[in-house]
Design brief:
The protein is mostly helical. The protein has helices at 20-25, 33-40, 49-58, 62-95, 98-109, 113-131, 133-146, 154-185, 190-213, 226-238, 275-280, 283-298, 301-335, 346-359, 361-383, 386-396, 406-412, 418-431, 437-440, and strands at residues 220-222, 247-249, 260-263, 270-274.
Length: 448
């Protein structure tokens, strides 16, 4: 089945959707008769985008839809529970003066300020992990199994939790030490310098993640099947993306989710598709997904998201400074917190951050969702696979609500909903764009 390299030899009449006959040949799970007949009809019947979108959505069985809606809507509540748990832990540590006692302990152990922060931060991070463990266990283990999304038994899951905790202890302690060094030197302007540190820290994290973090949880190996690899590399080549290989990641170790990602920064950038995607999807679907990931790369989303993040952190830190000083003025005596450079105030910083993050949920989701939509637009234009894109959108619908209200999508969605993605694909299909070769129809080379 040569699905590769869309068709210099195909006849011009098909150029609006070179993939449709192949889609028809490899239908994967979605068998809505209305749809397939429209998709496989090469006489390019005008597509009604709204009706076609609805037909795709209607092809999902009712019980499956209810299950994935329930899973995703449960996630809305988890945002609230996570916020409340963090807030409760922070208030407990402050009002019980446990935080102040931990600070006193660190000051008894050493006179060196930086080490005092270390002796405060490590027990603090361990305590927070332990106290939030029940919710973590429910959210990331039991709930995932309940919805059939997890593949790990408890022992390997917990082992990965411990690796994650170790990384948090190292990275988190380092960050806190650097931040408190800034708090001591610039008690009034720390929010400006702190922002620079947060951006630098995030950039380093993104840069080293593919090399030092991701291999701790999964194995990445180059994709060797030329039937899949070559069409992907062809899209990369057409867009000046300097990759020589595509990676496959064994995500099935943890989950049944279909996914792909682009990670890293500068020299460590890597495009990877997961083995679930490879097993469950046809080539048009894989091309649609990989073109989307390439969109993140070409549109420079890593640098853009870091910039947006920096602006949001600057605003957040400016607010934090005001709220922190006000809280210390009022309750500092009772909690035993002396000021911004006192590590005993770390739970207060965590409390304020969690409030701001909770309130900013729609803003953060929308910032990410907009870049995802840009990658979708790039992906559909590069892959030219509207049906592949629609089918993948339905597969992602296993863990993301397919047809939310606009307000729901605005608040909770960090990716476009399935409906929005399918509609984009159907609009693209209906526009019936020429691919370029139809005008010259092989008579003469286009020299002018
Ligand atoms: Zn994306």
């Amino acid at each position: 089945m040569s699905l590769t390299r869309a068709s210099p030899e195909e006849k011009p009449a098909q150029t609006a959707s070179p993939a449709t006959p192949q889609n028809g040949a490899r239908t994967g799970g979605i068998n809505d008769p209305r749809y397939i007949s429209a998709a496989t009809d090469e006489n390019v019947k005008p597509v009604n985008p709204a009706a076609a979108t609805q037909a795709w959505l209607d092809s999902v069985p009712q019980d499956q839809r209810e299950k994935s809606d329930a899973y995703f809507e449960g996630g809305y509540w988890l945002i609230l529970w996570n916020f409340l748990v963090t807030a409760a832990i922070s208030i407990l540590l402050l009002s019980s003066r446990l935080s102040a006692r931990l600070r006193d302990f660190s000051e008894r152990v050493t006179k060196i300020k930086n080490f005092q922060i270390v002796f405060y931060a490590i027990p603090y991070l361990l305590l927070v992990y332990a106290l939030s463990f029940p919710l973590n266990l429910y959210e990331n283990f039991f709930r995932e199994h309940q919805y059939g999304l997890a593949t790990q038994s408890f022992a390997p899951w917990f082992r990965e939790q411990l690796i994650g905790l170790a990384l948090t202890l190292v990275g988190g302690t380092l960050l806190v030490v650097v931040l408190y060094a800034v708090f001591r030197r610039a008690p009034r302007t720390w929010w400006i310098w702190g922002t620079i540190i947060m951006i630098t820290f995030s950039a380093i994290l993104v840069l080293i993640a593919p090399v030092y973090v991701e291999p701790l949880f999964n194995t990445y190996k180059p994709l060797t099947d030329p039937k899949i690899r070559d069409p992907i590399l062809a899209m990369a080549q057409a867009n000046e993306i300097p990759v020589k290989q595509v990676f496959e990641v064994d995500a099935s170790r943890q989950t049944t989710r279909v996914s792909a990602n682009v990670s890293g920064l500068l020299g460590t950038t890597r495009v990877a598709l997961n083995d679930n995607l490879l097993k469950q999807c046809s080539l048009p679907e894989i091309r649609a997904v990989m073109a989307h990931e390439m969109g993140h790369y070409v549109l420079n989303h890593g640098a853009k998201l870091l910039t947006y993040l920096g602006i949001l952190i600057l605003i957040g830190f400016a607010l934090t400074r005001i709220l922190f000083d006000a809280a210390v003025k009022r309750w500092g005596g009772r909690w035993g917190v002396r000021g911004i450079s006192d590590p005993a105030g770390l739970p207060l910083l965590a409390l304020i951050s969690s409030i701001l993050l909770f309130v900013a949920t729609p803003v953060l989701n929308t910032v990410v969702r907009i870049t995802e939509r840009e990658a979708d637009a790039f992906g559909i234009n590069t892959s030219r696979e509207p049906d592949g894109m629609a089918k993948v959108a339905l597969k992602l619908g296993v863990y993301r609500k397919l047809n939310p209200t606009p307000l729901e999508e605005f608040i909770f969605f960090d990716h476009p909903s399935g409906r929005a993605r399918i509609r984009m694909a159907m609009d693209w299909k209906a526009a019936n764009l020429p691919a370029g070769e139809w005008q010259s129809s092989g008579n003469e080379p286009a020299t002018h």
